[in-house]
């Protein structure tokens, strides 16, 4: 049937988030992954995946590079026996298999950060992996380890943490909360007490822009790489394309930096609306409110309000004369 109707989306699809992510918060976030394919797979795609899987299984013994295999014992998506077969059949002389008790399919994304990162640090030194056997502490994930027993050799795998050693997801979450909380007092003052001298004095300060700008720059430093530039400007005309942007914003760190960017621009626009309202004696509280999350709508609301009030004043003055 796949050869006759290769493009028909007839393969049953199951939501794997519950099976793949043990951490409940990360399981909820998985639903917002914009690059995750959520439709039923095509028959042709399913057939090719099956063929590819079979071909890989038939060539496991050709794997000869240093090998570190990590797999959750409670993985219901891919059976741990697959990783055991890779470990047993690979011709690598330097190989290691770690099976984690209680861990699900998305081992590096769906487990609690504090547990998986502690376990990773057990075998990671600066810049790479040392295949060493060490006894895990009580705070680490229980793990079953198989090692080829050869002298340690250095191999490299990515370690997703900041230069300070904190998980990037933790930094992104903290930055998101900090930025949101930081701008709320300024909006509150512009809405609750727009004509108070204290509000006018506070709004003149450049401190929030310096703080948020520094935070934004730091997040960009953590999230942007040469690959980021290639993803954004993948077009032959060197113009941003939507698929590339969607892929880029699938990262929590990139989303956090974009959120800080949005907050800074919105606050700056809201402050300009506020000052224009003071100068022209125009009501701006509704416009300032809209600027918080819908900046263009807030600016439009201010222009409409300003035009309506100006016209009303002109009619009043003409009536008096």
From TrEMBL:
Annotated transmembrane regions? 175-194, 206-224, 245-264, 284-305
Instruction: State the source organism's domain of life.
Output: Eukaryota
InterPro entries, per this entry? AB_hydrolase_fold (IPR029058), ABA4-like (IPR025461), Hydrolase_4 (IPR022742)
Keywords of the record: Membrane, Transmembrane, Transmembrane helix
Residues spanning the signal sequence: none
Indicate the segments forming the Serine aminopeptidase S33 domain, all copies.
2-112
| Statement: the UniProt record of this protein carries the keyword Membrane | yes
- Keyword check for Glycoprotein: no
This chain's protein is named Serine aminopeptidase S33 domain-containing protein
Species: Penstemon davidsonii
